[in-house]
């Protein structure tokens, strides 16, 4: 806790969270994602600097990241909805299975090794990144979305994996939709709504999972740090609208390229974490 006793370090901490929040909000608006690929490693390193053990720092980083995703995803989804590009019907079909996947993921997260799910994400994301960057129109699973049963099954997978990885699910759902020939702007916009479906129940799950555990952060409710949440949210909400505006200003090809680059970077980040 000596970090908090040093004013210069405290200022650096607050500025770091403000910058992280700004990036999270911008990416939420631009790609319809929660920003967990940024917030989880930032929060994890912060909690280690504050002297907390990795076994507390990691689940708290994931839980706090999911909490931050709630308001940013709501803001992003509203912005895209006003532009008429959110597939509300698909979100309705996904609502129950996504939440069910979140519940299962929160239970499994108490004993599962997340490296397996990170590796699976890297494989799928790398393939889709190559598709988007190379502009391969033939790189599709189908020319349209699958039937209702398959859709519900995939919704459960999105909720399950996202909860384990501390992400809002937007990267996974956008990949799924673009591989089924959904236009990139519609996929990004709808994925913002997916973040809302995932983040709220997942956050409650991490609060419950950490309830009463020893050596938690002083400001934490279970595995969610309220102080970190409050310091990150202001800038994230300020930049979400800018991300939405840019997403709709970009052409289809440029947005595909930008999202492909993002997936490649996230994959590299997870590979680095797996290697460490």
TrEMBL record:
Signal peptide: none
Highest taxon listed in the record's lineage: Bacteria
Entry-linked InterPro entries: TM_pro_TauE-like
Segments traversing the membrane: 12-44, 56-74, 94-112, 119-141, 153-176, 188-208, 220-238, 258-275
Chief place of localization: membrane
UniProt-annotated location(s): Cell membrane; Membrane
Topology versus the membrane: Multi-pass membrane protein
Nuclease recorded as keyword: no
Tagged with keyword Transmembrane helix: yes
Keywords: Cell membrane, Membrane, Transmembrane, Transmembrane helix
Entry similarity comment: Belongs to the 4-toluene sulfonate uptake permease (TSUP) (TC 2.A.102) family.
Protein name as catalogued: Probable membrane transporter protein
